[in-house]
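Chapter summary example.
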Amino acid sequence: MKKKELLMISLMVFSIFFGAGNLIFPPLIGKQAGVNVFTTMLFFSITAIIFPILGIIAVAKSDGLRNLANKVDPVFSIIFTIAAYLAIGPALAMPRAGTLPFEIAISPYISPNVSKSLILFIYTTVFFGVVYWLSLNPNKLLGRISKITSPIFLVLILMLFIGTFLKPMGSYANPEPLYAKNMGLQGFLDGYLTLDALAGLNYGLVVVYVIKQKNILEESKITKIVVSTGIAAGILLFVVYMMLAHVGASSISIFPNTSNGAEILAAVMKYLYGSFGAVLLACMFTVACLNIGVGLTTSLSQYFHSMVRRVPYKVWATIWVIWSYMLANLGLNRIMEYSVPVLLAIYPASLVLIVLALIDKYIKGSSLVYRFTIYPTIVISIIHTLDKINIKIPLASSLVKKLPLQSADLGWISVAGVCFLVGFIVSKMTEGNADRKEIN
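The structure predicted for these 440 residues follows.
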């Protein structure tokens, strides 16, 4: 594959990860972490960049999320993959992609005499129309994203970043308490909340499909290309995250009262470019969310087409876009109330699945190890998630609260680690017994 093609795939991978949430997190982290921003962002990168890229690699190596999840067992594979695709797609991320740019960059400037719902309807009609058009032909996905939307987005980010040097705002402040004492852990948790590792599992199929369109069918070559383009995309993600974190960190001198990343970006854009800054901000959020919408529509449609071959890819694309379009206009807030807990319940299992896939050859693909590790992780995650929404399970809820790292919402890590060791030992003992029977 030519270097130009590798660069295009890297840009595509970068773009399909970078949505509105990815724009909002780093500026706020930068403002709160202050002089500790670089260290915080390094740990942020573990869960916001490294795990998502590893997710794509894991899916590529397994030739699809369904095959990867099937290493646990077939029932888990069906339930988990459908839940993962729907939860991060039409049930949450896709409708949100259509409404967030509107709420952040357009809604504040609408006159009180104009119907906000009407403007939202017009905006989402255009937005999802473009998403649908870009998603209809996955063969052209690489060119459209890497040659059109990615460069536009990067130019807008550079305008924001360079503007902070042409018109300086101030120096970094001392970190807030959370980032002063536990900058590493807090950065790790901030990246964890992006939920991009789950997105990586979804996008793996898209990246493999794009590579296969270049007549590269050998599994080892596909994996090698996924790794190299994933690393390049990860580096670009880190650079852009650092630019945004710098914007937030340097903004505190003149905008001390901003409470979230969207407010920071809006204030800085207005400071740098006046009223034109609102236009730039609207374009930035729209392009970022457009890439997310296209990436998710394509991955969802390819996956469900692979499950139900009789239903064409374009029909699936139509279903997901219309579903997301309706939710974006009618019921996004309520859907988010139910979707976010589902995401939090399955996300730890996604991280564990990625790790197991990457060490698969060392555990010899043992379903026993996968089950011993995945199922307890899911149980702990569900109990914790139910506790978050004030549904207590007698005894179980209180026991989960006592787990190591549970105060940081990471109690599942200790459970997964212990259960992995138990599963690994049991699988070795079972393997040894089988070998002895063969000898006898």
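To summarize the output: Residues 359-440 form one domain.
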